[in-house]
Amino acid sequence: MTDTFLPTEASSVLLATLGGQPQVVTFALDALLARGEIIHEVYIVHLALTNERTRRAWQRLQQEFVDDYYAGRRCRLRRFPVGVNGVELTDIRTATDAEAAWQSIRTLIADLKSERRRLHLCLSGGRRMMALLAMSAAALLCDHQDRIWHMYTPEETLQRVRDGAMMHVTPADGVQLIQAPIVPWDAYFPALRALAQTSLQAVQEQLRRVAAIDEPQCRQVWERLSPRQRDVLRAFAKGMRPDEVAASLCITLNTVNTHKTAILAECRVAWNLPEDTSLDYRFLRERFAGFVERV
Question: What pTM was computed for the model?
Answer without folding.
Answer: 0.64
